[in-house]
Structure formats: C-alpha cells, structure tokens
Specification:
Elements: H1 7-71, H2 78-97, H3 102-125, H4 134-238, H5 253-310, H6 317-345, E1 354-357, H7 358-369, E2 375-378, E3 384-387, H8 389-405, E4 413-420, E5 424-431, H9 463-473, E6 478-482, E7 488-495
Parallel strand pairs: 2-4
Antiparallel strand pairs: 1-3, 4-5, 5-7, 6-7
Helix pairs in contact: 1-2, 1-3, 1-4, 2-3, 3-4, 4-5, 5-6, 7-8, 8-9
Length: 496
C-alpha cells in the first residue's frame, strides 16, 4: 500500500521553485542592468578623458612650439614630437568609443580635421632654420590661436554631450543599485516563508506516514501469520495429508481463501480415497487379466499344437495356413495383454534409485533383443548415474527391439550415443532401417499405432507408448528424426 503525497506539498514545492526561479531572474536582471549602466558610465568617463587628453596634448604642442620660437631651444619641441605620435592613436580610441553615437562621431570628424590643420600650422614653425618672414610667421601664429580656440569650443560640445549622457546613465545606475537589494530581499523572504510552510507540511506528512506504517506493520504481521497457516496446509497437502484444516473465519480475501482451501483439501481427500479404491480395482483387474485371460489363450494355443501334431498327415496346406494365422493372432493377443499391463503399471510402483552403468545396461539389453546378425555400437561417453534402473532398461529394450523388428533387411547396424546437456543426458538410438515419414513422427507414440501391416510384423503398437510414458514420468522428452530410406533416430533426455 503506497502513501500518496499531499497535493498541497507538490503545489508548495512548485511555488517555491517558481519563486526561486523568479528571484534568480530578478537578481540576474538587476545585476546585469547595474553592470550595463556601470559600463556605460565608465564608457562616458573614458570618452571625456580621451577628448580632454587630445585637447591637452594639442595645447602642450602649441605651447612648446611658441617656447621654441621665443628661445630657439629645441627642448621645447618635445611636446610637439609627443603629440605627433600620440594624437592619431588617441583620435582612433575616441572614435572607437563613440561608434554608436552619430552626433559625437560628427564632432570627432571635425576635431580630427582641426588637429590635422593644427599640425599643418605647427610643422613650419618647428623648422625655424628655414627662411620665413616675420609677417608669415605672425599669420601662422594667429591661425594657430583661432584653430586652438575652435578645438576648445568643439571639446566643450563633446564634453557637454557626454556629461548629459553621464547624468542619464548615473541616474539609471542609482535606480538599479537601489532596486537590486530590494528585489533580492523580497524574493528571499517569500522563498523562506514558502520553505517554512513546506517544512511544517512535510513534518505533518511524515508523522502521518509513521502512524500509517505502524498500522500497516500490524496488518502485515497478521497477514503473514495467516499466510504461514496456508503455507503449512500446502506443505501438508504436498506430503499427502488431505485432512488438514485452517482455522481462519475472518470475512476478507484471506478468510475466503482459507475456506476455499479447506473445501479443496476435503475434495482432494475424497478424490484420493476414491482413486485409491480404483487403483486397488485396477490391480485386481491386472491380476485377473494376467492369470484368467492368459490361461484360455495358453489352452487354445495348446489345442492348435495338438492338432498340428496329431493330425499332421491329414492337414491340407490351406488348413495349415489357417492354423499358422491362428497362432499368430493368439501370440499377438497375449503380447497385447502383456503390453497393456506394462503400460498400466508405469509409474504405479516407485522404484528406488540405484547406480546404473549405462554401457553395461546396454550390453545386457542387447543380449536379450539384438540378434547376432545385427551390429550394435555403443558410444564411448556413456555415463554412470543414480536413477530408476528398470525404467531406463525398459526404454532401451523397447527402442532397440523396435529397430530390429521393423528393419527392412536381415541384418542392420544400430548405434547408441550420449551427450551431456546440463541437467540431463541426451541419448540417441539410431538405426539404418527403412525410416519413418515426417507425418508419422508424432503418431507413432500413441497407443495401438503401427506403421506396418499387422500380417507383415506382429505388433501391438504399445511399445513406443510405454517408452514415452516412462520418459514423461521422469520429466524427460523424446522425439524422432527420420526420413524414408534414411533410418530413424530416437532422441530422448534423461535427468541426471
């Protein structure tokens, strides 16, 4: 009996998992938003820093050039040299930072043009050794001042735009910084409340389960006791005691089963008593058949022999034929009675298992049923086993005598082999006789089935039936492998 989980617990678990997932999603969204805004703020600072660097470097280059013009000292040209290498790189960096801002890109294009213009102005001034008039130099310096003024104006616009973005992004950053802890805290509180409710629910569920388990343990103990009574009854029935009863009057399935078993044992007791009586009657019939029926047969046979002996001179050939047919029918009738008695006795008398050397057993059987003109080969792997000697002897006797009886020529070859197949031995009795058509492979094991004319070979059709019954009693199997003109092989298994 399985205990079902409370649906409320399942719903609570699903809700808790859902809240935890939502908490994780909200936390992820808040943290990601905070990270994005922080990166944008840093990005704005980088743009401002790069733009300021460009303006400062350009201003330093102008101041250094003017100092050089006033003093003639080339040390003042160092800021100009630094600017020539630093400004293109700085411009590229700031252009990369403003790739997503078209307005700033336009301003940076203008700034780059002004930087190139400033270098175009400053380059001649650094080459003072070349001849230049005072008026030309003054013109260049005036142009330089105007260019630098334009650069400052453009830088102020760039800075103003970036400061507006910075204010916007800082505001969003502040929102995410305030929202993230609140979202996480609220979600955590909800999750804790649900988990506490689930724990309380599960504790109650476990207490109910323990109570149910105690009740089930008591019920199982009672059921086990009643089943043990049924098993005891079954064991006693197996041992042949059909008078046992179960004292269980409960009105449930086991009580009904106990009542049915009691009725069954009563019926079995009555049936086996009747069967024992029938077996006694059958034994009596067998005794009568073996004595009272055989005695008249022997008398008729004796009379036929007297007629042949005393009236030998007066018997015509036709009358001798009739007398021969009569003797054959009498002999077959006696064999039929003996066969029926043997078939009826199979399994009726328990045989004590004894050690059996199968090779020696086959030699004894061959001396009884295999004529001298037949060759019997016994395989080298014949086992020695503890079994019903008489039953195995009857099987080999019937199979070998059948092989001889139904052989189509005067002499033949017989072979018996054996294979170990695990729990059983598999024996094969092979002959080189006329063979058996496939459509008769099953019929030959039935009572009174024979494949030849009774006038050709006197047969009762019981031999293979006895073989099959003996093998069935020993939990074995038998089959035939044969085809017309290819001999017949009877394969049977025998337990070890």
């Amino acid at each position: 009996m399985k205990s079902k989980i409370d649906p409320k617990i399942i719903i609570g678990l699903a809700l808790a998992v859902g809240v935890l997932l939502l908490t994780a999603a909200a936390s992820f969204w808040s943290i990601r938003g905070l990270k994005v805004q922080t990166e944008r703020v840093e990005h704005t600072y980088q743009v401002l820093q790069e733009a300021e660097t460009i303006t400062a470097v350009l201003k330093d280059a102008q101041a250094g050039t003017r100092g050089y013009l006033l003093t003639g000292d080339t040390a003042y040209l160092r800021p100009y040299s630094i600017a020539t290498g630093q400004l293109p790189t700085a411009l590229e960096r700031v252009r990369a930072l403003t790739v997503d801002n078209s307005e700033q890109r336009a301003r940076l294009d203008s700034l780059q043009a002004l930087v190139e213009q400033e270098f175009h102005i400053l380059r001649p001034l650094t080459e003072i050794k070349k001849a230049m008039s005072q008026s030309a130099m003054q013109t260049l310096l005036d142009t330089d001042r105007q260019t630098l003024r334009q650069v400052r104006t453009l830088y102020a616009r760039i800075k103003s735009n970036e400061m507006a973005l910075l204010a916007q992004r800082s505001e969003l950053q502040d929102i995410f910084e305030r929202a993230t802890p609140i979202v996480v805290l609220v979600s955590a509180v909800l999750a804790v409340l649900i988990v506490v409710w689930l724990v309380l629910k599960i504790v109650r569920e476990l207490a109910d389960n323990r109570r149910l388990q105690g009740e089930l343990a008591a019920i199982n103990a009672e059921v086990a006791r009643r089943i043990a009574q049924i098993r005891v009854l079954a064991e006693q029935v197996v041992q042949g005691d059909y008078t046992v009863k179960i004292t269980d009057s409960a009105e449930d399935n086991l009580g009904g089963l106990a009542a049915s078993l009691n009725r069954m044992t009563q019926t079995l007791d009555e049936s086996f008593s009747a069967l024992e009586k029938r077996n006694q009657e059958l034994d009596q019939f067998a005794y009568v058949a073996s004595h009272d029926l055989k005695a008249p047969l022997r008398g008729v046979t004796t009379i036929v022999k007297w007629i042949e002996d005393e009236l030998a001179a007066e018997l015509s050939p036709q009358l001798r034929t009739y007398l021969d047919q009569m003797k054959g029918r009498l002999s077959r009738l006696e064999d039929l009675i003996n066969g029926l008695l043997a078939y009826a006795r199979v399994g009726r008398v328990a045989q004590q298992p004894a050690p059996v050397d199968v090779a020696q057993l086959l030699q004894e059987v061959a001396e009884l049923v295999v004529p001298p003109d037949f060759t019997l080969r016994v395989g080298p792997d014949m086992p020695t086993l503890t079994t019903d000697r008489l039953g195995l002897q009857q099987v080999f006797t019937n199979l070998l005598s059948n092989a001889v009886k139904y052989h189509h020529r005067g002499a033949g070859r017989l072979e018996v082999t054996c294979h170990d197949i695990g729990r059983c031995y598999e024996f094969r009795v092979q002959d080189d006789g006329p063979g058996i058509a496939p459509e008769y492979h099953q019929k030959i094991f039935l009572l009174f089935q024979t494949l030849r004319d009774r006038h050709t070979a006197e047969s009762t059709g019981i031999g293979l039936s006895i073989v099959k019954k003996i093998i069935d009693e020993h939990k074995g199997t038998i089959r035939v492998e044969s085809a017309p003109g290819q001999g017949a092989g009877f394969i049977f298994t025998w337990p070890k």
